Fold these 3 entries.
Entry 1:
Amino acid sequence: MTPLSTLILILGLGLVGWAAGRARARARASVPGVRAHSLPGYHGWYVAIWTVVPALAFLALWSSFAPALVTDAVLQTPAAQLLPAETVDRAAILSEARRIGTGGQANAFNPLSAQLAPAYAAATARFGFYGGATAILIAFACGAFVFTRIRADFRARTRVERLVMGGLLLASLIAILTTVGIIASLLFESARFFQMVSPAGFLFGTSWSPQQAGFGDINRVFGAVPLFWGTIFIGAIIAMLVAIPLGLMSAIYLTQYAAPGCAPG
């Protein structure tokens, strides 16, 4: 079961849940003397959300654990006993076998990778089926559970609006945490860099040659003056030489010489 087919089945179940929940809510609201709290569409969306979102969350978690499970299954095969003890060579062979087994590479550079590729293909298909089947069962179970809760007085609109608000808050939080992570990463890597290179040598050095960092004094190859000068020369001097005359002449022409446009009609 491929991830695409699993996703299509889950979305299909969500569509079925939306239609079934909407129809059930409409039937409950048609009873004489019963006043529905929410429109049938909100009930349908409530069922659809609880059908799709938990299943997709499980698939996201499963996709992070499945590669390790596949590799452990491959390591249990007899061919895996021939793997070298060196970590780098071992990882390279396993990575090549994974690419061949999943169709990302046609030929093997190492004969052992070709032997392990069928095991990778079989393990990937097996764990893919396990994850897909479990996700579909979760989608069906969650959808069936919320479907039984549909009543005329059920506050589906409030629940759906809260779920949407929670999703928007989660998206905002991810954006904020991503920004914080980028800033923290820059600060951490900058601190590591300036532990090896002096700030004075970086700010006032006149040579930028990172490819020579392993040869000689490291403070002599990370001078940022050429970078600063290139930015100023292209972004300020040349840009201003082009922008100022054109912009100034255009402004003078428009304000002093251009004839006013004719009014429509």
Entry 2:
Amino acid sequence: MKKYPHTMVECLRDLAVSRPDDAALVVLSRSGELTLNYAQLDGRARALAAVLQQRCQPADRALILLDNDEHYVVAFFACLYAGVIAVPVFPPESLKEQHLARLSGIAFDSQATCILSSSAIIAMVGGAMSALGVADVLAVDETDWEAAEQWRPFSVQDDAIAFLQYTSGSTSAPKGVMVSHGNLMANERAIE
């Protein structure tokens, strides 16, 4: 019988050791193609997780306010590595009140203690970021990737919450669903 990793963190850590130079993530954009291997993805996740461990407590919530790119993947894994509950949300379409109200509602409902974003999105949203009621804002793309060695391994149970997934809120206030580390791994096994 095949032995499966207990968590996504264990899975990525194992791949970073057993297949460090294999492509883990390929991002295609208008500016070209970016490839991160398993060692690079693990290192970046650990570096950001080390920052999160300094600024957050286990089970705190972090809004991941990013587009679907390498920063999003790094931020999601960093949350898992730090024991912080990820709350993925798309950046607002505009600074109109309705778009900011959705984000503000999710920030309040999830009790987010920090926001993980990019310097470009932070600059775009600007002062409206304070309307979300979350004081701690980190630019993922400005993380010192050398900080990976400061990461402290964090052990989680299967029933611990890995992330909160919110509905779009197009017909009512966004509603969140709790996804545990066990749920996440069961889903990965089903996909395999």
Entry 3:
Amino acid sequence: MSSRKLVSIFCLHFLLVSPVSWGEGVGGGVSSPQKPGTTHNESDIDAEQREKMIKDMTKQANKQRQEDLKEDTVKLLELATELKQYVDKTNENVMSLEVMKKAEQIEKLAHSVREKMKAN
């Protein structure tokens, strides 16, 4: 998953969840009464739910990033194999345009894989 997708998911989550916690401060700081026999107030539960949602979203994003990396490395191997086949068909006097294009594709994909590996 790209960094942009992660940021989008985080922003969406922030927009959906945060107004609930902002609303608790409205009304002059008056908090709702706690139900007898409970150990957490609503804001603690909301914070725990938010934390769990963020943790789940992060876990899902990491899982998606890992799947993307696997797909990209398979494609990288295919491109490298194709490049070798093209190079084997050429000689020292002839360099095919296809060889150059394939090398560029490999370079771009390798850069993408490296960036995904850096993302955390």
